[in-house]
Amino acid sequence: SDINLDEIRDTLVEIARTAGKIILERSGRVTFDDKKNAVDLVTEVDKAVEVLVSDTLRSKYPQFEFMGEESYVPGETQLTDAPTFIVDPIDGTTNFIHFFPQACISLGFAVERKPVVGVVFNPFLNQMFTGVAGKGSFLNDEKLPLRKASKLSLQGSLCAIEWGTDRDNDNYEIKVRAFESLARGLSQGGGFVHGFRSLGSAALNMSNVAAGTLDSYWEGGCYAWDVCAGWVILSEAGGKVVGGNPGQWETPIDGRVYLAVRGADAREQKKYIEDYWSHIKGK
Ligand code: IPD
After folding, report:
1. Which of 6-15, 139-148, 161-170 is predicted most confidently?
2. Active site residue 46
3. From residue 247, how far is each of 83, 159, 270, 279 by CA, in Å?
4. Residue of 40, 69, 91, 199 to mutate, ligand 1, most atoms within 8 A of C-beta
5. 3-state secondary structure the chain
6. pLDDT (tens digit, 9 = 90+) per residue, 162-212?
7. Among residues 31, 150, 207, 250, which is most buried (max CB within 10 A)?
């Protein structure tokens, strides 16, 4: 296609810096409302940043579609094959409210539902993660991954997990069971994975897997805006995103359950994913 992806990345980086200033200024000083339940939170800053982003993108790229977390209407908003900006104005809203320094703006661009540009900016740590399909991904000026471990295996890995906001269905029980199994090992007892981390932001979890500072990230219940930008950053670092159902490895961006693993050779990746699923299934 003749879409200039580098130019789109540069535009998104500029927007991210502007939004980042607002996020920093307002973090820890906002009131919040509930969305679908008492742990799914939104603030006026999420809404204001989304308006700023959509106004800027719509005037610069009127020919492209826009999908944003705060303007999404369940059952109505549809992701299509058209080139689409997919945006989460603040990913990690709970952190933003609590002034916990892991929140970001997540700006993605997808063509035919394939994520092709991703910009994830954490203004607290001044971390600008960027990725363009076919051109690699970066943390500020450093090429990802930052760290290439010699071997990728579930045993001894550092895993991101999130409780998410859907806590009243099977999803929760599956998570509790899988975490226990991953922490204690299937039959051997004692430690198995080195540890769990919850950054509280899907985009930052994925970007840290891309960097090699985390080995994997698993969550059920994500939306396209949680994963679009991080997907590009991770794939360009040699990582892989797979679907939530055991064996179903090809996953669309508008799926809901994801496992993201860091780059390694394809055989190690496959083994890691298979081992992970065996813990989710409890076998
Ligand atoms: C949330 C974060 C969180 C994840 C939730 C998301 P938000 O996004 O990414 O880590 O567990 O599933 O909804 O609401 O902060 O934009």
Report:
1. 6-15
2. no
3. 29, 20, 10, 13
4. 91
5. CCCCHHHHHHHHHHHHHHHHHHHHHHCCCCCEEECCCCCCEEEHHHHHHHHHHHHHHHHHCCCCEEEEHHHCCCCCCCCCCCCEEEEEEEECHHHHHHCCCCCEEEEEEEECCEEEEEEEEECCCCEEEEEECCCCEEECCEECCCCCCCCCCCCCCEEEECCCCCCCCHHHHHHHHHHHHHHHCCCCCCCCCCEEECCCCHHHHHHHHHHCCCCEEEEECCCHHHHHHHHHHHHHCCCEEEECCCCCCCCCCCCCEEEEECCCCHHHHHHHHHHHHHHHHCC
6. 988 888 777 788 888 888 899 887 655 566 899 999 999 999 999 999 999
7. 207
ipTM of the complex: 0.96
**11 Cα: distance to centroid of ligand 1 (angstroms):** 24
Please report the domains of the chain, with CATH numbers, ordered by start residue.
Answer: 5-143 (3.30.540.10), 158-281 (3.40.190.80)
The question of whether 69 is a catalytic residue gets the answer yes
Around ligand 1, the residues with Cβ closer than 6 Å are 69, 88, 90-93, 162, 164-165, 200-202, 219, 221-222, 226
Nearest alpha carbon, ligand 1 atom 7: 91
The mean-pLDDT minimum among 59-68, 201-210, 272-281 falls in: 272-281
Residues annotated as binding site for Mg(2+)? 69, 88, 90-91, 226
Catalytic residue among 46, 50, 70, 88: 88
55 is catalytic: no
